Amino acid sequence: MSTEALVPWLLVVPLTAAILTLLVPERMRAPVSWIACVPMLAGAVLITVLRTGATIYSFSGWEAPLGISFTVDGLAGGMILLTAIVSAVCAVHARTSLRDEASANAWFWPLLWFMWTALNGVWMSADLFNLYVCLELLGLAAVGLVALRGTPEALSAALRYLLAALLGSLFYLLGLALIYGSYGALAFTTLSGVLEAVPTVYVALALMAAGLALKTALFPLHSWLPSAHGGALTPVSALLSALVVKASLYVLIRIWLHLTPASGSLAGAATVLGLLGAGAVLWGSWMAWRQEKLKYLVAYSTVAQIGYLFLFFPLVTSGEARASGLAYDGFVLMLISHALAKSAMFLSAGNLIFAVGGEKVSDLAGINRIRQTSMVSFGIAGVGIMGLPPSGGFTAKWLYLQSALITGQWVWIAVLLAGSVLSAMYIFRVFHHAYLDGPPQATFRTPSIWLESSAMFLALSSVLIGLSAWAPLEWMRLPIFKGSH
Amino acid sequence: MSNALLFAWTGAALCGLGLFGFIVHKHLMRRLLAFNIMGSGCFLMLVGLAQDGRGPDPIPQALVLTGIVVAVASTALALVIFRRWFRLSGKVRLPEDA
Description:
The complex is a heterodimer of chains A (485) and B (98).
Chain A lengths: L5 H18 L5 H22 L4 E4 L10 E4 L1 H24 L4 H23 L3 H20 L4 H32 L4 H4 L7 H18 L8 H7 L2 H25 L8 H24 L3 H17 L1 H5 L4 H36 L16 H14 L5 H16 L2 H25 L14 H19 L2 H7 L9
Antiparallel strand pairs in A: 1-2
Helix pairs in contact in A: 1-2, 1-4, 2-3, 3-4, 3-10, 3-14, 3-18, 3-19, 4-5, 4-10, 5-6, 5-10, 6-8, 6-9, 8-10, 9-10, 9-12, 10-14, 11-12, 11-17, 12-14, 12-17, 14-15, 14-16, 14-18, 15-17, 15-18, 16-17, 16-18
Chain B lengths: L2 H22 L3 H24 L6 H32 L9
Helix pairs in contact in B: 1-2, 2-3
């Protein structure tokens, strides 16, 4: 069966759901969303399983460069499936956790679907301008989701996020203007291999990279992230950290893999990105350890984990085919396992905050006296974040380590090890507080089975992905890395 | 210098001006205006650079049209959130800039 026919539905279904959830009465919005999750999951599974090679879909038959084509290759297919799983689970969580917040509950659903549409658009676009439009739609939906709570803190976080996202987009657009001015094309298929090693191209690529780094919250451009991710409603935090920050990084990876000039070296740029990533790992983990509020701790942990993803750049440009292949596999696995573990961690943190009725880490004291499902799922997710076996995070770091060993890049090995120790510090700090004895009169609420099982499902998947890493890695390998194994 | 290139340079100057304003000003309204100036500069560059030496080109004009729609939508969202923030907190700056 050809997977081409599936491509438009991956955009049409979420867009229809977005409009439908705006039209139906507020109490119907969650059930409609649940129903629409079913075709999304089915489509994502089908396109991952049935796809052979890259699926290219040209809307109404207009092929690139005249029309805009959508391409689903291994990386895009995997991201579509990941988006479907994480979003659907967050929808399950949101159904229960947002029930008490009337206005947030009404607007969450259309924004969720706009976000999903934009994410699928980003994964499948193979055109610089289309990526810009999808990133903007994603940014607007994400800012709306952050503002949902309506408190002054949420609004200032949304404004900070919006300003950063807009500035990042303009930098990207400037780079795009330079590329179009020089080559008169925007589609990856047309531009691939055409770009020369001239100053205009380097300036354009640098502008795009800077804009995308700002949108991805790469250290030291991360200051908007903690308040946006830490202060949002729980399912929103999970979606933002698991998926939305990955979108701009994904665009950067695409540009790096498809559009870098054939001649000329990018080792310098790769080292800069790697060093910023290393800075993110160390600074983000340190700040996570110092946070008072539980969700801010998890948000700073995202800053640190984004750093690991940026270590991909120096490892993939080492010039050794085998090291590049391992770096790519490590990157993909890191991306998936972070998305699963971090969304699990945010959902568990939200459940814990619900149970103890306080946002601080120290409020957890005494929680070990009640049913501990949320604490367990927090811990399982923590195993993935720390990178302990058998989680996906461990396998990903292992692949990174092998890649760095082949090319003798010792500095990145030190960063990987230091990052693991630091993340263990901030995660065990949470457990330390949970096992202290709280005030005896303290009462705890028990989160509903839906809240606990959605967090647990994601946490267990983040471990399972480590045990069966070969399958996603096989699906998501790109042709340029095929020969390296 | 061709006409088209003049547009591109004007666009670059506007971009620089907008970026400067975006960084220097802390008042959210001024920042939003600076963003719009920067956006217009980007659009001028996109059209100007593409038409320099190659004659009229409809594609960048279509792109800019889309870009304007995106910019208007972003500005509208920023205004709505800014207004609500102003009503609730009485401030025109972000907390860290106050």
